[in-house]
# Entry
Amino acid sequence: MGPAHRRRRLLAAFTIAASAVALALVPVTPGAAHGSGPESLYPAGDPYLDRRVQEVTDTADVLLAVQWRTTVPGTVNGIRICLDLTYDEVNSRLPLTGSLWTADGTTLATGGASEAIERFAPCFYQLSMNPTRVEAGRTYVVGFWLRGGRYSYVPHGFDEERSTASGHLSAWTSRYVYTSSFWNGSPFPTENWADADYLVTPAFTPDPH
# Structure
């Protein structure tokens, strides 16, 4: 084997190794592949979020929700909501509560946070709940109760249906109801205002296959 041939073999080996390192460093987007979850209606970096009104002045207690469905079976283990508030401001409102319902208002799961709440960039906070199974093709509602209002929203965000890049999740309307207490018979959210999007999403994990 001549020197030139050895150099070509070394260069090829180096190229393969460098490619492997580059692949290892590519960030994996949660929910990008079936079974990798959790997925959200609002992925990080979505320019849609730039359209949001960053905190309304309304300070009334309110339950904000979204009506949605999935094309694949899986589980919901939390609810996320966009709040343009500091972590300390959000935690000053604890306890926070939320629920997963069927389309007709039957409660499937309820979660609460009394000590801490998980934050996701750029503005989302997650309320965890016990993993709850959802079926493909059925309509569900997830809602998040906020003491003191001051939420964010996208005006006319649901003039058109929204769906994830994977096609697993879609949503077409937000809902709300003013209520001073989430527990003890809180009403099911049914109101809608001008197709506003209140930026509420399930944290959904598709079944692996």
Observations:
- The helical segments are 3-25, 87-91.
- Confidence is low (pLDDT under 50) at residues 2-36.
